[in-house]
Write the structure tokens for this entry.
Amino acid sequence: MKFLVDAQLPQRLARWLSSKGHDAVHTLDLPAGNRTTDAAINELSLSEQRIVVTKDGDFVDTLLLSQTPYQLLLISAGNISNADLLKLLGENLEDIVRAFETCEFVELGHGLLVVHY
């Protein structure tokens, strides 16, 4: 799968996803870095069919209103250490990948994996 990790999540997450065999980039890898706008992230997500990984609820609004980004993984675990975030994703990655085969919006929290649609 192809992922685009948003600015408020660590670049380490994109590297971790890559180590698991996925194509993952972080906003720091983009020309505007962490100043990349949500609109530009949505555009890149659509053009490259990337799943946006974010904690930013604004992406939920744009997904519901304008069908962008391409797909969305919302991390709703609150403040979480990078190690705990990677552990949480590791425990759920197979289910997340399976969910995105048929759905557009998945939410991951502590003890929670919700497939919205």
